[in-house]
Amino acid sequence: MPVQRTSELIEVAWSGPHDPADVEALNGALDFGLIAIYGSHPIFGSDALLYVDEAREHPFGARMRRVEPWTRHLPSAPSVYLGRLGGPDSPTTEQWRDAIDRAYRLVTFFHAPPWNSRGLDHHGVLGRPTTVLNVGRRHRLAMEVSTAWDESTWDPKGTLWRPYGPTEGVDPVQGVEPAGR
After folding, report:
1. Residue 82 is part of which domain span?
2. What is the dihedral of CA 168, 174, 180, 181, to 10 degrees?
3. Among candidates 107, 112, 109, 94, which has minimal Cα distance to 133?
4. Structural domain total, the chain
5. In terms of pLDDT, which residue wins out, 8 or 160?
6. Is residue 136 one of the residues assigned to a domain?
7. How many Cα atoms sit within 13 Å of 69 on the Cβ side?
8. CB neighbour list of residue 140: distance below 8 Å, 6 or more residues apart
9. If both were cysteines, with which of 40, 49, 110, 138 could 14 make a disulfide (CB 3.0 to 4.6 Å apart)?
10. Preceding amide of 17 cis, omega within 30
């Protein structure tokens, strides 16, 4: 029996780079989502992803003011990218908050920015197959992150996963028959 797989899609449209001072002024009704801060790092070099934050309870401006003191000690000015969640359907407030949380967890887990400490050991999106698509000016973020690894049936000691190939025209000893035989 085939394994059924479904995944919820969360789309994050990124814009940037933005100046941190400009971000501090963003306090409108649509100024929520994810924040990615890039700058110099002694190990990862210049223009490295340093931190991912979620603007879920407070808008981008308030979140940026909280983080801004950390950026003062960087050798060069940071650049900020903003990710707004969207799509064809308007979710409830609770669904929207949950989507921001899951997008934050997956983006942080898979990119492991050095200034983040929460959520690096496991993404925490359990039992909720989720795919996050990063679209627009996403800079160095992966186009897609997901819980697909958690859904995999591969297990070196298991019996559910097995390799497969063509089902017709195959000699089990010789392999695939040459064309024209």
Report:
1. 8-151
2. -90
3. 107
4. 1
5. 8
6. yes
7. 2
8. 38, 47, 49
9. 138
10. yes
